[in-house]
Amino acid sequence: MSIQRFETGPRMSQVVVHGNTVYLAGVVANKSAGGSVADQTKEILSIIDGHLAKAGSDKTKLLSANIYITDMKTFAEMNAVWDAWVSQGNTPARATVQAQLAAPQYNVEIMVVAAK
Fold first, then answer.
1. Does pLDDT of 26 surpass 90?
2. Cβ count near 97 (within 10 Å)
3. Domains recognised in the chain with CATH numbers
4. How far is CA 94 from CA 6, 11, 52, in A?
5. For residues 112 and 90, what is the distance between their CA atoms, to the nearest angstrom?
6. Strand order through the sheet with 62-69
């Protein structure tokens, strides 16, 4: 079974496709880094949409999601954006964890796995 990689760098690939499964690296906001959790979440979900499309998938095929936020006090703010985006009836298995992220301007990081 072949493996496809997209946006591959020396440390990681943003997207890896193995068989009919699409794995995304953790996605953080670029333009809205340092902004609100809602703005960062919106941008991240838009990036995820683009990555999934490149791999021949979409949010209706999500299998799992891991969400990292820097402060659980922003959980509801992040969830409001997530709930508006996620495909109702096709919600993935999901975990949300409070964590220190790679740089202080990031308040949210999301990693998903989807079927093709």
1. yes
2. 10
3. 3-114 (3.30.1330.40)
4. 24, 25, 17
5. 14
6. 3-8, 13-18, 21-24, 108-115, 62-69, 93-98
